[in-house]
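Need the bound structure for magnesium ion, inputs here:
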Amino acid sequence: MDVNDLADHANNKENACIKVPKHVAIIMDGNGRWAQVRGKRRTFGHKAGVEAVRASVKYARESGIQSLTLFAFSSENWKRPQEEVGVLMDLFSFVLKSEVKRLHKNDIRFKVIGDLSPFSASLQKKIKQAEELTQNNQALTVNIAANYGGRWDIVNAAKRLVEEVQEAKVKPSDIDESLFDSFVSTADLPDLDLLIRTGGDHRISNFLLWQCAYAEFYFTDTLWPDFNEDAFRAAVEDFSSRQRRFGLTGEQIMTSESELQAC
Ligand code: IPE
Ligand code: IPE
Ligand code: MG
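Answer from helper R.:
Posting the output first, comments after.
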């Protein structure tokens, strides 16, 4: 058993009675307010938020979550003051450089979703290299949403689908939810189970609109830089205690769960 196997073993034990979500997404909100209450500039909060990203990836890796999608920069965030946007871009570049080796060592696949065309050529190149280096890793997928918008994702999928129809690769009569799903940016990831938003607001802010169809929502007042492994565990435990009915009755769900009862 190597270190990774030992960690998996310990956590499988710890998680024995917990339903671990396969795919968790997080709206990492509250960096600016975290800095402002400390009398600092907003960008200080973005830098502090990097530690919370590390803690979340560590918790996801150890708890058996398969995919973690993190909202790092929305298509609307370009409208912020130029200095703040600049700091966020530099931070993204810096973190890519400093973290990718560690992700790779921990068998983590790294991916970025969003419209990358406005990013500098060097940042696009770094993203591509990181994705290629880690593409066969299995333990966890860390998926960063950068210049991402849920409506963009749906429109982009529609455009690509139309192209396939024009090239006669797809017949309009073949188009159904499952085919459409294969064109959105999360096509290779499990369905979204849990959406967490830190920072106290109760909204989606144009995040994974298509993917949220049957996700559970978890809102916390904790500001992103304070979101640590315990806070993530609390969200997963809350998720685990919920009954997801997917349109069925509670009794139907209880019958099928008792057939699978593990604890
Ligand atoms: C989230 O924190 C990070 C990004 C949007 C990049 P905010 O910067 O939105 O922090 P608040 O919501 O203003 O406190
Ligand atoms: C959502 O947070 C985007 C990210 C966390 C990257 P915002 O702070 O931009 O969202 P609003 O403006 O409060 O809706
Ligand atoms: Mg915010």
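Comments: Residues 82-105 form the longest helix (24 residues). The chain has one domain: 20-149+190-262.
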